[in-house]
Write a structure and sequence with these properties.
The longest helix has 9 residues, at 303-311. The chain is 3% helix and 42% strand. It contains one helix and 25 strands. By secondary structure, it is mainly β. A hairpin with a 2-residue loop joins β2 (20-22) and β3 (25-31). Strands 6, 15, 16, 18, 19, 20, 21, 22, 23 and 24 form a ten-stranded antiparallel sheet that branches. Strands 1, 2, 3, 4, 9, 10 and 13 form a seven-stranded antiparallel sheet that branches.
């Protein structure tokens, strides 16, 4: 049972912690009382610490980023162009429960929820340096099994004192993800032609059946969120031993043909020199460098099947 909270100086808030760890998510219950006498927050907010990763799209035709969390992903990312770079909310009930996260610029030390509850943002190794993130669960206070839903909460930028920051535009921050035109690639192992910007080829592998793919029709520099975005140039779908599996070629969006940078969530795969693993929209994916690009494999039965296909793939880039 939670005891009656006392207002603290930070964020006009009252903090009661509980040690609850489930599915690698740590929760901190935040019971907030407003600094205005006689008013209270509409929500009880639990601060969640979960993996939130910025990752590329494997399917051909996108310049920019997707966001993956422990509960799902979004691709492409909807951007605000403000200090709150992007935010996402989902709800369930009754009783009403909302889950939300926000990715922010380095200037955002805290984020208010519903204009009342303020929680600190945190750094995350799976995001570009200097970016921050906040993730919460908001339960409607005093709701019944039949209770009416309150409006979906929203994050607003705040400083370390909990003071709201102006919702100003951030110069140079793209407002949307770029969708690049593509064309279909024939359904055979040597898919594509030397005139294609990117081409994927698979060596003979028992049980591998090509299912076609896509390739972008032109390549040029694209400005993307964070400055080191990736351009999904080509993708090929296969079936391997009855499992759908996907391969893709990723270019540097800002300098196609130059060696693309590693995205923050990429980690070396133990026992496989030169191979990296990362979360993705399609689940965990594998990647290795080729000349001027990343060659990636997603979906499949598991890491070993993805590694087997990655070893049998080659790709070329024609710019």
């Amino acid at each position: 049972m939670l005891m009656s909270p006392r207002c603290k100086s930070y964020c006009c808030g009252c903090f009661v912690r509980r040690a609850t760890i489930a599915l690698a998510v740590m929760s901190c219950v935040v019971v907030v009382c407003s600094c205005s006498a006689g008013t209270h927050s509409h929500f009880v907010v639990s601060v969640k610490t979960e993996r939130i990763a910025l990752v590329p799209d494997v399917d051909a035709g996108t310049a920019g980023w997707c966001i993956v969390t422990s509960s799902g992903g979004a691709c492409p990312v909807g951007l605000s162009g403000t200090l709150i770079i992007t935010q996402s909310w989902s709800g369930s009930g009754p009783p009403p429960v909302y889950e939300g996260y926000a990715v922010t610029t380095a200037k955002v030390a805290a984020a208010s929820v519903d204009g009342r509850t303020t929680v600190p943002t945190r750094s995350d190794p799976d995001l570009p340096a200097g970016w921050r993130v906040v993730s919460v669960e908001a339960r409607q206070k005093g709701s019944s099994e039949r209770g009416d839903l309150m409006p979906v909460p929203r994050f607003a930028a705040a400083n370390a004192k909990g003071e709201r920051l102006p919702a100003t535009r951030v110069r140079g921050l793209p407002l949307s993800i770029v969708e690049v035109p593509t064309r279909a690639v024939p359904n055979h192992p040597a898919a594509g032609s030397t005139s294609d910007v990117c081409q994927i080829r698979a060596m003979r592998l028992p049980g591998l059946i090509p299912r076609g793919g896509s390739v972008i029709t032109t390549s040029r520099p694209y400005a993307t969120l964070g400055g080191n975005g990736l351009l999904s140039c080509a993708s090929s779908s296969y079936e391997l031993e009855g499992w759908p599996i996907l391969a893709g070629v990723l270019l540097s969006a800002s300098h196609p043909g130059a060696t693309p940078a590693r995205w923050p969530a990429l980690r070396a795969l133990s026992g496989h020199p030169g191979v990296f693993t990362s979360p993705g929209i399609e689940g965990e994916m594998l990647a290795r460098h080729i000349s001027g690009a990343w060659l990636v494999v997603a979906k499949g039965k598991g890491v070993q099947q993805r590694a087997t296909l990655l070893e049998r793939l080659s790709a070329t880039v024609h710019l």
